[in-house]
Amino acid sequence: MARPPAPKLAEVLAEIRMSPSAFYRMRARGQAPCMGKLPNGELRCRRAHLDAWWENCEREPRSAQAFYGPVDGQWA
């Protein structure tokens, strides 16, 4: 079975309608979707992580509570 696509950072930013600077600010605070860095330096986000982040934003729109990726810190 084919793995779901992992959109590039530019595709994620277009989907969530966010500027790169705002995204990196959220990422520094631990509030952005979980991203993985490929050996070539490119950032990718697994579709499941992006969808989970969206769901969390819809559930807690005004909450300062961050969405964190996997507990072990790995992008698996």
Architecture overview:
With 76 residues, the chain is mainly α. The chain is 39% helix and 5% strand. The protein is built from 3 helices and 2 strands, in the order ααββα. The protein has helices spanning 9-16, 20-28, 47-59; strands spanning 36-37, 43-44. Strands 1-2 form a two-stranded antiparallel ribbon. A hairpin with a 5-residue loop joins strand 1 and strand 2 (43-44). The longest helix is centred in the last third of the chain and has 13 residues, at 47-59. The radius of gyration is 12 Å and the shape is globular. The two termini are 17 Å apart. Mean pLDDT is 80; it is low at 63-74.
Strand segment count = 2
Rg (C-alpha, Å): 12 Å
Secondary structure class reads mainly alpha
**Unreliable runs:** 63-74
Shape: globular
Q: From the structure provided, what is the oligomeric state, counting identical versus distinct chains?
A: single chain
What percent of residues adopt helix (DSSP H or I)?
25-40%
Our count of helices gives: 3
Kindly report how far apart the N and C termini lie: 17 Å
Instruction: Name the average pLDDT.
Output: 80
Q: How would a textbook summarize the main sheet? A: 2 strands, antiparallel
Order of helices and strands: HHEEH
Strand content: 5-15%
Major sheet: order of its strands?
1-2
